[in-house]
Amino acid sequence: MVILVTIILEKSLHQPMYIFICCLSFMILGVMAYDRFVAICQPLHYHTKMTVRKVFFLWTAAVVYPLLSIGCCVSLAVELPLCGNKLPAVLCTGWRVVANSCIDTTLNDIVGRFVTVTTVIIALLFVLYSYMRILIVCKRGSAEVRGKALQTCVPHLVTFVTYSCSVFFDLTLVRLDTNKINPIASTGKNINRRLWSQPY
Which residues, at least 6 apart from 66, have a Cβ–Cβ distance to it below 8 Å? Predict the structure, then answer.
């Protein structure tokens, strides 16, 4: 809230980069990478490429697409009849609910994979490409230019790569039977259950 209020009240922060920050979506990080790419690699064209209309369009797309894609996944999951009510995890994710269904869930699987690819993998590749181009351009500049580019890009890149990898592995592992992949973890879980069930 402090960030949002500061950006709204301070007129000098009414720039595309800070407008994107107001949204605080990880999809927005992809749009922010494009903004930094244009600002650093094409500085003379920045004001013609990042107009108010384009900023509003990019911001709207970055907010609406995730809402629609997640809404589509949730609506498909809600329609499924469930055969069980046990979730093998602490968190209730969409795929764990789908796995309890009695009917074929191929459509849910396809839509879920499509959403994962478009919101995580493609966005990550776009960010990596943008920052690679930025760093190549800054490499030819002075030490001060390189320092400013690294100061701007590295925290953003680390945050986005961490987020993307975490989401990707979480969405991938939830679809796999971890008992078959790692029998030691499964055995440890059973031993743990036996220990806790013993009276002391």
Answer: 25, 27, 119
Query: DSSP string spanning 145-199?
Result: HHHHHHHHHHHHHHHHHHHHHHHHHHHHHTTS-HHHH-HHHHHHHHHHHHHHHS-
CATH number at residue 104: 1.20.1070.10
Structural domains counted in the chain? 1
- 68, 134, 181, 191 from 42: Cα distances, Å: 32, 10, 48, 60
Q: pLDDT averaged over consecutive 10-residue blocks of the chain (200 residues)?
A: 78 75 71 82 85 87 86 87 72 74 86 85 84 81 75 76 79 66 49 45
Inside any domain, residue 191: no
> Domain range for residue 103?
2-179
- In residues, how long is the chain? 200
Tell me if the pTM is above 0.70.
Answer: no
Any domain includes 190: no
